[in-house]
Each structure stands twice: as structure tokens, then as C-alpha cells.
Structures
1.
Amino acid sequence: MNYKDYFKKLDHDPEYIEARNQFGPIFDIGDEVLRLRTEKGWSQAELAKRAGTKQANISRLESGLSNPSVMFLLKVANAL
């Protein structure tokens, strides 16, 4: 499943919609990181290596389960 199909599926999930309304900007950042990463054909592990962090941190960022620091976002942005 590509990321576009994945997000179409989520757009119909009531829990996801509620969370998106509450935490929109954090989800937007995660969505954009996921989009850029998949366009490059990178795994989460590859992005983590390039950003100098752990794969789990990338996973949390993309899923919206973290409140990333500006420094962490800069590392990810520079890697991308």
C-alpha cells in the first residue's frame, strides 16, 4: 500500500479524524516527513541513519505520537 492509499483509508477513521482535529500540526509534520521519505524510497531506518537518530523516533514522528523538538526536526529536515 502506498502512502496515498494509506491516508485515504485514514480519512474515514473517526478516531483518526478526531485526533487530527486536536493535534493537526503535529500530524501535518509527520505526514510530510512520511511523504518525503517514501518519495525518496527510504525506509524509516535509512532516514534515521541519515538524521543521526533511531528508527523508533522516526516512527513516532510519522505517526504523530511525539512532540518533536525543533532540533530534532532540523536533523530530520537536513537529512531529507
2.
Amino acid sequence: MLWVKSFHIVMMVSWFAGLFYLPRIFVNLAMEPNEAAYKRLLFMAEKLYRFVTPIMLLALASGIWLWVEYWLPTPVWLWIKVALVGGLIVYHYVCKRLLKTFQERTNNRGHVWFRWFNEIPVLVLFVVVVLVVVKP
């Protein structure tokens, strides 16, 4: 089980890296007036999203495996973590919708909005790590 736990941690860290960086690209896209630079940033965002989506699925699969092996019946702290992970899944797919607005050139949000949006996974990560380590 330690192999599964290690794999889960690597996939989780990789997924969070994508969730941290993709909205940061959105910040730059929202400010970019140069067409060539915009296309380059858009290409980077598309590639990152396609790369990080299977990583999310692997993090979820390994997390479910660990849940079934270790935590049935499920303690309250883990239900809170599961709810937060559910929120991250929603966040991931909101990023997909936002990416589509940049692809279609219909984004109407400014870079400041994306800077705040970019902070959501940081807060979730903090709470999830506290829940997993402290197990209140």
C-alpha cells in the first residue's frame, strides 16, 4: 500500500502544479495584446490542460483505492477532504470552460479576477494537507 500512497502523492502534487499554473497562464492571456504571444500562451494552456487531466484521474483513482483500503468506515475529516477534492474537480472543469473562452476570444474577465481565481487551489491544498496530517 505504500507504493499506492506514494503514487497518489506524486499524482496529487502534479495535479496541483497544473491547477496552480493554468490560471497563471490565464492571467497572462487576459493581459496579452500581442497576437503571437497570445497564441503561444493559448497553446501552452491547451497542452497543460490536456496533460494534467489524466493526472487528475490517476490521483483520484489512487485516492479511491487508498480510501477503500484504509478508511472504511470513513472518519469525518476524510469526508471533508472528499468534499474539497470534489470542489477541485469542479475547479478543474471550470478551468476548461475558461480556456474555451480564451480559444473563442470571448473572455471578458480581467487579469485581477484570474489572480484571485488562481488562489483557490492554494487554500484548498492548505486545508487538505492539515486534514490529512492532523486528522482532527
